[in-house]
Specification:
The longest helix is centred in the C-terminal third of the chain and has 47 residues. The strands form 4 sheets. This protein has an 8-stranded parallel sheet with strand order 1-3-5-7-11-13-15-17, with no helix packed on it. It has a 5-stranded parallel sheet with strand order 12-14-16-18-19. The chain has about 300 residues and is an alpha/beta fold. A hairpin with a 2-residue loop joins strand 9 and strand 10. It has 2 domains: about 240 residues, Ribonuclease Inhibitor (Leucine-rich repeat, LRR (right-handed beta-alpha superhelix)), CATH 3.80.10.10; about 45 residues. About 25% of the residues lie in helices and about 20% in strands.
Amino acid sequence: MCSLSFLYWLRLSGNNLSGELSWLKNCRSLNTLDIGDNKFSGNIPGWLGENLSSLSKLRLRANLFTGDIPQQLCHLSDLHILDLAHNYFTGSIPCCLGNLSGFNRFTSSKSAFTFAFSSESIYIHQMDLVVKGRQFGYTSTLELVNVIDLSSNNLSGEIPVEITNPPDLGTLNLSRNQLTGKIPKKIGEMRWLETLDLSSNYLSGSIPSTMSYLTSLSHLNLSYNNLSGSIPSTNQFQTFNDPSIYEGNPELSITDVDAKDKDGKKKVDNKEDEYDELWLYLSTGVGFIVGFWVVCGTLVLQRSWRHAYL
């Protein structure tokens, strides 16, 4: 059992460690816990959200954890990185996760400022996170990253509306679960959302038109669900030209995306044809003028040529 009551940062990721988490019970000063990519198992104990109340970053990714995601995690008010991906969690997503103040951008910035001038800043801390479909190693900017990644589990039920509460959340990845119901319309209020991956679930209904308000969104994946209706065609959705992010939804009108691509290509081709035609007329006119003055100008200037011609 942990006897280092002053332990602030613990990173044991990428090993072959196993067992449960009882040894962490007295690590009350922990701010960051990264034990991802191991073989830890069992449930997340409820005391983790009560005893380790200072946690702001929790990465349990790629282990063998089972059971429900405990409601006690919602006691971690400073939490702004929650990565539980690639485990065997079941049950529903706790609604209260969307009420954590740690996902507020200004709160995170304040923490980063304090951290930069603390004694711990002499060490280089790093955490690997999957953002925009790729894994990145974050160091100095880690305090500014806001992530909820619950992908590749066995979570069920609907996406709670409360999960869309944090306007400053940057990454929301709920892919490869068994989620049902509709995409919450309130998701359009997440002004700083850059990554949204809801693929490989059982979501139904239409894509909310409010999602076109997500002006920071650069990575979207809604594939392999039961979505229907048409795809929004305004604002941010004009930048998503990859049809694969919608595939696997038989009743979704992905033809609009194809039509948009073809229309855009047609406009480019038409513009190129106009340029070619203009260049043809211009070159013909210039060639005539130059040819005319080469012949006539010579006759005007050279008297002997003029006499010979006559």
